[in-house]
């Protein structure tokens, strides 16, 4: 309903715009996931119809709508059907010579590294789409207002205010049964209520999110510093006891505690910096983000290069967190990320391999994609992804170790 309401608001203005760009796609994806934690496999058919409209009624006004309808028919240990309609972007932007203001619903990007970006915290993400298609497609929209002030051609200040109201998702299509839903892996002790009390932040003035980013160019280096205060997109799940029982008064042994699972979304603060420089054919990027509420820091450096039919990138992201109660309790993680893409026959064929590895936890993920442009507006894709990790691993990649997948998709663009 929210998507429909946004579209109805924008249509009258779009109809009178002098310049309108309309595009979109219809796609059907068939996927299999042969290894599931509970045994057996999963087969899914996912469809999507997407419409993107950009209008420029005047030189100082731009409107954007990007929405989709997604459907699911799946065998997830039983027949599952679901459908959603959502706006990815629906905003109005007013532009001046030294300031622009964008208000609406959509996705905004901070950070410079590829795929794993420490300061990209403005939008929550969907895990299923992250692994199937990458971070750009996985960002979930939020309601926001953004202002940018351009002091000079090289220096600008960006300020953002947004409502929480949307959490991260394991899967937008029937999340409760999705193989990407890590909460399904929980082994609940006897006496624990098998439901989740999800206490999401309310979309109110008291829970506003917001921050700012100052960007400039120093010589040949583009750099920025930023700060942001928001709500975690994935909550922390904890057991809250509701009944304590003394087993000595009962004939049969039963649990001492009866309770339920509660998921809360804490507030966090981020202070970050990033930079980018072009050295010959190479782009060199660096990014770091400090989270005082989490007692954590993420820092990374990466390079990428496009040369003819090839594009390659690689980066290293280091994570460190520590306990506020015990400074000797420190955890380290290292993520190695890389991708290589090759195009053939004037971009008619494309092959891409992407991988991420955490050598500290002996875990990783690799995804391969091959695409064939059958006609100018028709493409076929095949893709597969595999996860690696120890059975008792607690890092994110290890927890997804039973979610290997393979899919084929046909896409029609208009």
Structural class by secondary-structure content: mainly beta
Sheet having the most strands = 18 strands, antiparallel, barrel
Weakly predicted, low-confidence segments: none
Radius of gyration equals 23 Å
**What is the H/E order?**
HEEEEEHHEEEEEEEEEEEEEEEHE
Descriptive terms for the model:
414 residues; 18-stranded antiparallel beta barrel; globular; mainly beta; 3-stranded mixed beta sheet; single chain
Would you give an account of this structure?
- The chain has 414 residues and is mostly beta strands.
- Helix content is 7%, strand content 58%.
- It is built from four helices and 21 strands.
- The strands form two sheets. The chain has an 18-stranded antiparallel β-barrel. The chain has a three-stranded mixed sheet with strand order 8-12-11, with no helix packed on it.
- The longest helix is centred in the first third of the chain and has 14 residues, at 2-15.
- 23% of the residues are buried.
- The model has no long low-confidence stretch (mean pLDDT 88).
């Amino acid at each position: 309903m929210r998507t429909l309401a946004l579209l109805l608001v924008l249509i009258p203005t779009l109809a009178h715009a002098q310049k309108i760009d309309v595009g979109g796609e219809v796609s059907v994806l068939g996927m299999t996931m042969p290894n599931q934690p509970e045994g057996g496999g999963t087969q899914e058919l996912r469809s999507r119809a997407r419409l993107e409209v950009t209008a420029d009624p005047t030189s100082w006004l731009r409107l954007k709508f990007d929405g989709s309808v997604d459907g699911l028919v799946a065998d997830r240990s039983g027949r599952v059907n679901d459908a959603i309609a959502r706006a990815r972007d629906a905003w109005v932007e007013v532009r001046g010579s030294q300031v622009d203001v964008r208000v609406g619903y959509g996705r905004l990007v901070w950070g410079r590294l590829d795929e794993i970006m420490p300061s990209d915290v403005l939008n929550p993400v969907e895990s299923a789409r992250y692994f199937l298609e990458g971070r750009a497609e996985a960002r979930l929209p939020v309601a926001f207002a953004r202002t940018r002030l351009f002091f000079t051609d090289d220096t600008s200040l960006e300020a953002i205010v947004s409502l929480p109201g949307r959490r991260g998702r394991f899967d937008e299509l029937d999340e409760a049964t999705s193989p990407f839903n890590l909460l399904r892996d929980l082994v609940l002790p006897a006496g624990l209520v098998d439901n989740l009390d999800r206490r999401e932040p309310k979309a109110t003035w008291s829970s506003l999110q917001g921050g700012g980013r100052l960007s400039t160019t120093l010589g040949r280096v583009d750099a920025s510093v930023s700060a942001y205060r928001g709500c975690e997109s994935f909550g922390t799940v904890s057991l809250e006891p509701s009944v304590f029982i003394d087993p000595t008064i009962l004939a049969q042994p039963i649990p001492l505690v009866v309770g339920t699972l509660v998921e809360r979304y804490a507030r966090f603060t981020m202070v970050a910096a990033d930079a980018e420089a072009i050295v010959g054919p190479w782009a060199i990027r660096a990014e770091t983000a400090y989270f005082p509420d989490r007692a954590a820091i993420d820092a990374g450096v990466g390079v990428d290069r496009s040369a003819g039919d090839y594009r390659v990138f690689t980066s290293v992201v280091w994570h460190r967190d520590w306990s506020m109660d015990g400074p000797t309790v420190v955890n380290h993680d290292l993520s190695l990320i890389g991708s290589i893409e090759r195009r053939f026959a004037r971009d008619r064929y494309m092959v891409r391999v992407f991988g991420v590895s955490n050598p500290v936890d002996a875990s990783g993920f690799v995804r391969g994609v091959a695409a064939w442009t059958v006609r100018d507006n028709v493409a076929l894709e095949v893709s597969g992804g595999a996860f690696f990790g120890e059975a008792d691993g607690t890092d994110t990649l290890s927890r997804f170790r039973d979610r290997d997948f393979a899919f084929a998709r046909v896409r029609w663009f208009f």
